[in-house]
Each structure stands twice: as C-alpha cells, then as structure tokens.
C-alpha cells in the first residue's frame, strides 16, 4: 500500500518549510534542481517501486517531444506523436484499467459461452493482477499527452533540458491530484527569476490555510457522516441517503478544493503560479456552467484535446456534433476517474444533461424571461445541486447495484432521518455554510469588504486566527487521504 | 529608534516576513491558551454524561470492582447485582466505542491512584482487527494528557505527531465544544442516565436471531494485542483479580473469531479466567433479554450479572 505525504500532515508542512527556505537561499539558477530533488523525494516517500514508471513516462515523452519538434513533415510528426501517446496511454491503461478490461472481457466471454452452450455453467474466475498504481499517473500522463499534442500543433517547442522537463511533470505540489498544468504555462516559470515576493508568499500561505480549513473542518467532518451512511446504505432511509448524497457533494468539493488550494498555495510561496482548478462552482445555475467552474484543469484538457477536435471533425452534423462530442468527452472523463462502470454512468449522466441543456438553450432562455432574475438564479442553483449530488452517487459507490438501490430508496422518501450525533450535523452545516458564504462573497461581492486582504491588519489577523483556531477546535484530523489521490 | 528599526526591518523582506509570521503565531498561541483554558474549565465542570464518567473513572473512583469495556460493558453488568452478590463497591468505567487502547489508558490512571480488588474486562469480537483510523477513539483521553503522564504513551499511539498537536490547549477538546456546552446547561447537569457508570437499556429485541457466517479471519493489529497483554500483566503485577468476559450476543457465530482465540490464549498463558458466553444456549433463546443483537437490556443485564457472579465464585474455588 502506498503511503503518501498528505498535504494536511505535519510531515508535509515540515517538508514544505524546508523547501521554502532552501528555495530562497539558493542562487536562482539552482532552484529548479532543488525543486526536482524535492519532487523526487516527495515521490519516493510513497514508495520507490513505482518511480520507474513515472521516469519512463518522463523520458519517453521528453524524447518524443524532441523528435516531434525536429520532425520534417506531418507524417513523421504524427508517427512520433502516436508513439508518445501509445506509451503514455498504454502505461495508464495497463496500471489503471487492466483488471477492468480482463473482468469485462471475461464477463463478455461468459455471456457468449452461456448463449452458445445453453445451460452450461462457466465456473472460471477472471485473473486479477495485483498492481501498484504509480503515484499521480493519471495526472502525469495527461500533462505529457497535452505537451506532445501542443508540440504537434506547432504551439510550443520541445523542452531541451531533461531536468527542467522532469521538474515540470513531477513538480510536487501538483503531482498527486493536479492541477493538470500546461507545459507552456509552467516551463517558462522554471527559468524566470523568482525573488522573494512578500505579498505572493503571504497569498500562498493564505491559500494553504484555507485549503487546510476545507479539508479538516469541512471535508473530513462530512466524511464521518457520509461514510457511516453509505457503508451501511441498506440500513438507512431515503431521506438519510438523500442528505448523505448532498453532503458528499460538498465533501468532494471541500476535499479536492482543499487539496487544490494547498497545491496552488505551496507553488505560490515558491514563486510559481499554477492554474486554478475551481471557480466557485456552487454559484452555477446550469450543469454547463458547473463544468466551467469544477475541476477546470481536467475539463479544459478534455475540451482542448477531445471535445473541440470532435466538434470540428464532425461539424457537418451541426448541433449533433456537440451532442456526440459531449458524450465521448464525458464518458472518457468518467472513465478517467476509475476503472468501474459507475464512473462511466457518472460521465454518461453529465453528458446527457449537458446535451439537453445545449439542445434546449433557446427555449429555456424564453422561459427564464418570464421570471425575475433572483427566482431563475435560485432555481438554477438548486437544480445543479440536486443533479450533481444525484450523479455523484455513482461516483462515490463502487457497486452499481448498490448505487441504484440507493437511488430507488431516495425516491421512496420514507422513514426517519439518521442523526448520528447533533454535534456532527451542527459542525457539518457550519462547514457547508462557511464554504457557500465564501463562494458567494467571492462571486458577487468581489470588490466589497475583503477579509483576508483587508487593509486593516486587525481584521486580517482576526481571520487568520479564527481559521487556525477553528481547525484546532472542530477540524477532524487523521481523516485519511484525499479523495482525488486515488484517480 | 523604533521608527529606524521598523524601516530597517521592512527593507529586509525576509526578516519582515519572519517577524510577521512569529507575531501571528504569538497571537494564535495566546488565543489558543485562553480558549483552551475556558474549555478545560467547563469540561471538568460537568456533573453527568459521558465525559464526566470518563473523568470520574480516571480521577475519582475508588470502587473495589471495576468493569472495563465498550458499550457492552456499559450495558451488561448491573451494579446492584454485583454489589449485593460480591459485597463490594462497583463502578463501570466502560465507554461506548472504546477499544483495548482506551481501557489500558484508564487502567494506567486507576492503578496509579489505588488498587481495585477485581477488574472485569468485557472483550468484543474483532477487538484486534486492524482498522484505519481506529485509534481516533483515543481522542476521548486527550483532555487528560497533560495531567496524567501515566496515560501519555497510550494517547500518543493515536497518531505519530500527537504530542506536537497537544502543544495546543484547544486541541484536547477538539470536536467537544458542543458536548461541553450542552453538558454545562442546567438541564443536562441534572441528568442521571447512569447508575455508577452502568447505563440500563429498556427496549426489547423482537426479531429473529442473527447468524454470523463471517470467517472470523482478518488482518490483526499487533499493537492492540501487545496492549491487551500489557493490560493483563499490569493487573497481575498489581494483584488485581482479573476476569475477561465475552458477554452474550443475540447472534449465532458459525466461526471462531481470531481476536477471541488470541485473547483466550493470552489469558490462559497468564492463568486469567476467560469466560465465554457466546454459545450460552439460554441467551441464544431469549430475545426478550436483548435490546438489539449486541446489547442486553436491563432485565438481561440482571440475569447475566447473576450468572457472572456464579462463574466468578466458581473460578475462585
């Protein structure tokens, strides 16, 4: 089992502090070396056995990138691109999906056998390979693939320094769960001079603090309830399962959003800018809008390298090209999360609703004109929360039958609510309320009164102290790994 | 002079940053100490409830007979029956959801103050199972860390950096704010849900008996096994008569549980009585004595307690 250096652990905070101090002590030209060494150390903490896979990805992508860059014609370039894609996708498919493919093939073979030889029982079980999934493989391969495609498109030149390239792919703040950073955004930063910038370091620390709050106070607290309910879902009523489903949606955001804040904050204190991964998703009034605000680095990756090329390729289909592209994109996006039919169902549901929104855009706009804005906004937000939490049931539950039985129970809407303890519900509601308050403030009252960027140091210190003290008071420590580490 | 120092500091951005950071830590430390002190005061001011019972177990009880364990200990051993049958004072230090780690922590505190005559340890299935996050329950002992050095090694098992987290005065009361607040309200001060730590259950189980077909095999936590053995050794060393009991369930177990087998083996090694009621036909036919499949109700507790006394007297002879 891999043991990660969790972002909310004291081990990571000590590690980050050391890297931070050394980063600014070293002459600028050696700083990327420090970051490379730190990233390799960070990787090795989880187990040296899987680092060779990451290095194969790094070296093969680096070489393919150089060959692509030097490719004399389109055919040669395509050849090197395909090699690069084959290696990256092949490794990803092998480590993450091989058991799924074996099991699915076996089930298919079993069905055929049963059909051909009616009545015969096929009693063989599929082979299950015990594989250690390399750390961050989903994120590393996607960055690598994006890098190669951009070179092929002529938007970027290949990096000629293997050390810099390795640092880009394995940069520790984004190694485990992204953001899926683009090479042309990050690589130039490695060569820029990063003097100690007080305001940037402070902003980075604020993001780390906010990330810790989201993870420890909100995500881990909600997890106490959702894991208790979903692990024994057959014993719970529809209303309890419904509440747990909504809680899980906020838990997932707080967990992943919290990790992202810490990742971006960690990079920022070292002088680096990573792309944003979330943009106040709970103000979304449609699923289309949600996916522009949720896991942005992944959705834009799929948009640039899957969705848009399909729409362009199938443009003769007119609006149906968008529908087709949506289904392909979101089925792949769902599948990227894990080798499980439930993730495919999750992706399918997103695609279905997005397509419906696209096809009914004009008629919905006409309908909205009959109501005041605030009504449309409230209905929109509630609709997104309802749909997204419903679809996340498939995201959260491994077994398809269990997921469907949970949904069936929710719609029966009978029975009493499982309270667990009053304090658990109270702290959970406080956490969700705080999260929503911050998002709505950021979205609608940006220029107004600022808390962490307030001119008064008293207000700023009050907020910092409050967050730290709340973490100590109601944070759930030792709450386990981040959800998105497993993808 | 001050103005000169401030200007000089601002020019040295690293020093300026460090000073600001230290200032923040100082402010947090002060508020942490103040809030922690308030929480501590109200935590120990409670006069009833779970946290009060834990404090009473660790700091006050001088009962001759102590019952250790989790919720089953809390609900199965009737104080009046034991007091009358054994003619000794009784206190139930059991706590819902606690594990052998918790029991050992409390035992350390008890033995530092006095030596009870008898200890009953109610043992549960899967006690030695390796479960991620299982040590989290030790958080109920955090408020006692500073004042009870004998409990520190056990509490520090909760996590690798626990002793550093305990530098904070608030941290021991983590997630307890609501409970402490409620525990200090007038209505809760008067609640008396327990009798010498024993909490009676009043409902009756009307469904059929459960058959547990699990193999009883799972990954074992060697630390828990060591702590269990250490519990036995401490009792023997302090000349406390120890009884380890697997009290009744309304469940038919098809396979022996690994934890029970190991616990019996270790008990035998130290010549400690391990009394197993898992196959007691009387209880397996008496649903009316149970509130649920794992817990006896008050009637069941009285009958079980009487049977326990008989067994204890038998094993003495």
Describe this structure in words.
The complex is a heterodimer of chains A (487) and B (317). Chain A has 487 residues and is mainly alpha-helical. Chain A folds into 2 domains: 10-194, no CATH class; 200-482, no CATH class. Helix content of chain A is 71%, strand content 0%. Chain A contains 19 helices and no strands. The longest helix of chain A is centred in the first third of the chain and has 43 residues, at 74-116. Chain A starts with 9 loop residues before the first helix and ends in a 13-residue tail after the last helix. In chain A, 41% of the residues are buried. Chain B has a single domain, classed as SGNH hydrolase (Rossmann fold, 3-Layer(aba) Sandwich). A 5-stranded parallel beta sheet of chain B has the order 2-1-3-5-7, with helices on both faces. A two-stranded parallel ribbon of chain B has the order 4-6. The mean pLDDT of chain B is 91. Chains A and B meet through helix 1, helix 9, helix 18 and helix 19 of A and helix 2 and helix 9 of B.
